[in-house]
Please model this.
Amino acid sequence: MHQEAPRDSEAPQGDHEYTIDQLAARTGVPSRTIRFYQAKGVLEPPKRRGRVAFYDNTHESRLKVVSELQDRGLRLRAIRELILTPDSDNDSIQQWLGLGKRLGNWVDDEPQLLTEEQLQELLGHPPAGTIARLRRNGSIGAEGNGLQMRYLVQSPALLKIAMRLEDAGVSLETSLKFHEILEKHLRRSADEIVEFAIRHIGKGFGRSTRPEDVSRAVECLYPTAPGGDAVRVVFAREIQRAVAEHLTHHTDGASQRRR
Model:
């Protein structure tokens, strides 16, 4: 229901109090979303004078933090756990956001706009027709014409892997399907790991709730760190298991058909 405008007797006391509509205008967060955040526990309830609710600068700051955390990909449940962490305040949450920026350096794989010569070099000078195939299946995009033609490669690292797989007899189309499968399942795994870690900050994840301590724990998840090696080990083990199971099933089936 739309909030009534305050009467003169209910006007905000001080320069930094706002009605819900004023807060929505200042932050760009719709009024219904502000109410939803309150219901979910990520925003403190407002002060009330009579029938009117008043918000202050702490609500404004919290809304900005929640928006930034959502931009980082955190779900609302994880944001609530982080905000409710003991000793958590806006300063410590800003340190968390700084940690998120540092984690952006984990992936050294930025999109590149390349000339045909540069693309050929990236691909290891592949057989004729390879670039056309990559364009058809959406692995690369083309911009411009003639001598001004440039190729947009969203993930140079993945493209190099695809070319190595093709050398081993795995087609580009199959590589793309592999990537789609991995991305779908690893995204879900990453979400679950992060949400679980946030729920256990200082209680099994990080020596304490201080951002610097949790930062050390998070950085151990990096694929080249000791903890990150778990991804490689688990995935290799599961691939080995799946191949063995399929081969056994295929062999058993072939034996039964020969009988």
Summary: Confidence is low (pLDDT under 50) at residues 1-14.
